Each structure stands twice: as C-alpha cells, then as structure tokens.
Amino acid sequence: xxxxxxxxxxxxxxxxxxxxxxAARRVGLTLCTGAIFGQGETEDDIIDVSLALxxxxxxxxxxxxxxxxxxxxxxxxxYLKPYDCLRILCLMRFLNPKQEIRVSAGxxxxxxxxxxxxxxxxNSVFVSGYLxxxxxxxxxxxxMIADMGFEIEEVPQVEAEECExxxxxxxx
Length: 172
Description:
By secondary structure, this protein is an alpha/beta fold.
C-alpha cells in the first residue's frame, strides 16, 4: 500500500512506481503489476493495495507471497497462513473481475495443502521457479490443475520478430 511502501522500499517512492506504470500505459504497453504479501502489512494495507490495483486496471495481477531469504531483513519471518493467502486471492478476484489473477511466488510455502483452492479465484499459476527460489515442478502443478477439473489453456507464442516493429515505434 502507499502507506506501507516506505517501510519496504527506500530507493524510490510509491508515486515513482505509479508514474512508471502510467508512463508505460501512455506508450501503449499492457500493464502486468501486482503485489508481494507477507512483509508486515496490515489488513487495511492489503485492501488499499487491492483497490489501487483495481484503479490501475492492469491486464494481469501477479499475487506473490514473500519467500523470506537468508541475509535479508525478512529472513525467518513467515506469518501468512494458507487461509490468509486464499482471502487475499479472493479479494483480488472480487475487486478485479476482468483481470488475470496469477498465483505467483510463495504459493507452495504459504498456501501449502490448500493450493488447489487457489485455482478458483486465479486464472493462472506460476510454475517451476521464481526470481530467487525454486518452485513446484510443472508436472505437479499440471496434475493439481487436472485433479481440480480445470483445463490448461495453451497461450499462443509470439515470435520476437513480430514485436520488433512495435517496440521500435515506441523507442523511436
């Protein structure tokens, strides 16, 4: 949330981040922006960031749950319970009914045995790894999806050549 942002990030402000997102939208980029939960935020912070994301109207919203790494200020901190994570996902879905809600980093560690329930409010899950840690292998994730009766939708791949003219137009 805007209130809690200075507790987490000191290199730039919340408004700097918002300005970056708005500038990206102005030049025609599609927004994919979300949040990391489990960093000491309050329930009001969770609601505030969820409302802010709704106001931004991004195409997709990755919902991450902190994976506390050794050597960081959050090392050893883990207070999110599976139920908390599911409530956050449901709030995101309720406030953002048209956006792609993506269950992202930390789902294995925080949602644990209730992971299959996260498929109901979400459109997709990240698999096999994140920026700083490993994740559940895709075979296990695919099995979980199948066990819940969902179908995996193939996403068409875009070749780099197809993107170059659009990117050069933005850069030029």
